[in-house]
Amino acid sequence: MVMSDTISSGQFSLAGVSAAAVTAFRQGRLASSDQEFDKAIQYYTEALAFDRTPSHFRARVFEYRGLCFWLIGEFKAAEKDYRESLTTSDSIDQMARARVRLGELADFRGEYETAADLYKQALQEGNATENLLVIGRARRGLGILDRRQGNTERALSQLTQALAIFRQGGETREQGRVLTSLGRTRQARGEYQQALVAHREAYVILESVNDRWRVAQAVNDIGECHQALYDVEKAYEHHQRALQLATNAGAKLLIPEIKRNLGVDLVESGQYEQGLVYLQAALKGTREQGNREHEALTLYHLARAYLHHGDDGLAVQLVLALTHVAELLNADRYRALAAFVHGELLFHQGRKPEALNELNLAMLAAQTAVDRGILWKLHAAMSHVTDNEQIAAVHLNIAAEFIRQTAEPLQDERLRHCFLNAPPVMAVLQAADVNPNLI
User: Fold this and answer.
1) Rounded to whole angstroms, how far apart are CA atoms 87 and 63?
2) Residues near 287 by Cβ (< 8 Å), separated by ≥ 6?
3) What is the rounded CA–CA span in Å between residue 114 and residue 93?
4) Per-residue pLDDT tens digits for 105-120
5) What is the pTM of this model?
6) Exposed, middle or buried, 156 (CB in 10 Å: 0-12/13-18/19+)?
7) Quick one: which of 42, 20, 22 has its CA closest to 31?
8) Using CB atoms within 10 A of its CB, is residue 220 exposed (0-12), middle (13-18) or buried (19+)?
């Protein structure tokens, strides 16, 4: 473990470190590699307890212990260790590594500006010292932020560069992480075929390094693509498996996200009450973790579930909560989702002019920040709300075009058939007078 670390991470020498501290450190690396994070934390704590260890060694151990804390959801402890790592070392390499980790933590909390500043500084430092690992991680972080804020073109560019860097350095696990991010970016663009290819490649790579934590993530993401294409049965299978894998791996961070997906699958397949149980558990979990992005997505799906089952009072409360989180995140994607579901709610209440106003706001926020999977639904909703028949027809045609763009690249015939024959999709195609068999 230490040897490959030396190759990929710039200079990291164990010179001047006592044999006992080195032993504790190596046991920590081994436990971490086996995803026994609690045990790894104990070994790293032991390594830090030795007197007179060099500062570069202490800084690296703080970083590794921080990562273990992060992976078990102990965010305050993780942040404390990352900050120790940053201030203990005077090595630009090590400081840049710690900055990237602090960036990941800020990103998870929805503090996007802070994360961007940390990644940019780390990228500058990584370039100065030609540290490929830092450059790749910083680019991946910036790519994820670009995706979250709706700039998916720039996200693809950053992530593709990160992937090339990790391939050049032979960093297998990091390649898997970037492929997951690339898959999610493709997903965010409604490019489900390319998303599935990236997620499957990520799955194979992560399984080859026995990264059980991220294998569960890949299975969840594959399921999410099936869900977006109304292949609910397959989506549910993947999400059930992902939950089992995440539970076995102790991947607490992933569990709310997977439960949200299971909730959506169940609601979509008509098991409303069961679906609500999962969605409410997901909301509770994301709030406990302080992950605002997943909180926003869960609020969106819960609001829609309540709305479509006539629970208007609850839907109103959740739309207000979603609008608040979208503003905290300061990201157009979530503003669009909040305005969309609010518009649907107002239409449902018979308040057409207000609904149209809200859907127009959603449309403005959605232009750059939302995937085709939402855009066609938004245009379909607009076609119902507007009283002008010609404008309604334009919205229907745009919705049908987004559906065609989603379906055409799909290589799996069963998946394509599933999507095109889903009732909401069929309704749009019939209204727009488009034959699904000709797509």
Assistant:
1) 11
2) 295
3) 20
4) 999 888 999 999 999 9
5) 0.90
6) buried
7) 42
8) buried
The two structure tokens encoding residue 394? 């334009």
Residues 411, 416, 418, 419, CA torsion sign: positive
* Whole-angstrom distance, CA of residue 219 vs CA of residue 225: 10
The CA distance from 321 to 295, in Å, is 10
Rounded to 10 degrees, what is the CA torsion of 407, 413, 419, 423? 130
How many residues appear in the chain? Answer: 439
Type of residue at 122: A
Residue of 287, 317, 324, 285 lying closest to 302 (CA atoms)? 317
Q: For residue 194, give Cα distances in angstroms to 29, 411, 427.
A: 35, 10, 26
Whether the Cβ atoms of residue 198 and residue 187 lie closer than 8 Å to each other: no
Instruction: Tell me the C-alpha to C-alpha distance, in Å, between residue 238 and each of 208, 219, 321.
Output: 19, 6, 29
* pLDDT tens readout for residues 357-372: 999 999 888 876 667 7
226-261 confidence digits (pLDDT tens): 999 999 999 999 999 999 999 999 888 999 999 999
